[in-house]
Amino acid sequence: MWTNRTRLLWLCLCLWLWLCLDKALCLPETGKMRDTDVSKFFRHLDVIPDVIAVGPQDFLNVTYPGNINADRGVQLQALQVRDEPKVNWIAGKDYYYTLILTDPDVPAKVPPQPNEYLHWLVVNIPGNEMALGDVRVGYTGATPAKGSGLHRYVFLLYKQSDYLKFDLEPVPKHSDRGRQNFSTRAFVKRYELGFPLAGNFFTCEWSTDVPALHKASHETEERPLSF
Predict the structure, then answer these.
(1) From the CB of residue 77, how many other CB atoms can be counted at a distance below 10 Å?
(2) DSSP H or E run through 122
(3) What percent of the chain has a predicted confidence (pLDDT) above 70?
(4) What is the rounded average pLDDT for all residues in the chain?
(5) Are the beta carbons of 170 and 215 closer than 8 angstroms?
(6) 22-58 burial string, b = 16+ CB within 10 Å, else e?
(7) Each residue's pLDDT tens digit, 41-76
(8) What is the spatial distance between Cα 177 and Cα 174, in angstroms, rounded to a whole number?
(9) Pairing of strands 151-159, 96-103
């Protein structure tokens, strides 16, 4: 028969196990946050609903030269984001991914229908090997117009169903051609990419460095995308 002391020890053990299990269920996975937590940051400054309707599952790791992190709406200077960042995520080796970087505030954040400017588009990325992806639109940094306020620069990662054929003319990084009038929603719908797997964003506004940066990194020809 159990003694009172044995019963007490058993109850204490059960209580300890219950507390441990409850804590484990409440904590997010290592390196990840719950979808609701990620969505909270994307609702900040209206990335949801201006760019996407549903938040990503996880944050995308975006690091610019100088170990500068583009994370959760942090405000950065145009000079800091001039060069292409390193982008990392946890990927399945047998999957392909699409990466989008878009500014929904061109020429300025005017409701209810922001205009997007496509800063970067890489498709058919095997796993997380960015260097092996197909760059359809070359990277160009943030150069917001004077007086246009704070711009949002949104990174979105999508997992493709397979290797896809993207009917897009390549755009060099120094060209403005094909960047204006982009729509993330229309692009995602056209290629059936579903909801974003991961994402992040930063903000930037005009500074005295912008005119020189824009001149160095852009041509003035323009051929709008029809998304």
Answers:
(1) 14
(2) strand 116-126
(3) 78
(4) 85
(5) no
(6) eeeeeeeeeeeeeeeebbebbeebebbebbbeebbbb
(7) 999 889 999 999 999 999 999 999 999 999 999 999
(8) 9
(9) antiparallel
What pTM was estimated for this model as a whole? 0.80
Q: In which residue ranges of the chain is pLDDT below 70?
A: 1-36, 111-114, 219-227
Count the residues in the chain: 227
Structural domains of the chain ordered from first start: 35-217 (3.90.280.10)
99: helix, strand or coil: strand
Q: What gap in Å lies between CA 122 and CA 137, rounded to an integer?
A: 7
**180 touches 115 (CB < 8 A):** yes
Q: Is 120 left (phi over 0), alpha (psi -120 to 50) or beta?
A: beta
* Contacts of residue 88, Cβ cutoff 8 Å, sequence gap at least 6: 60, 61, 63, 128
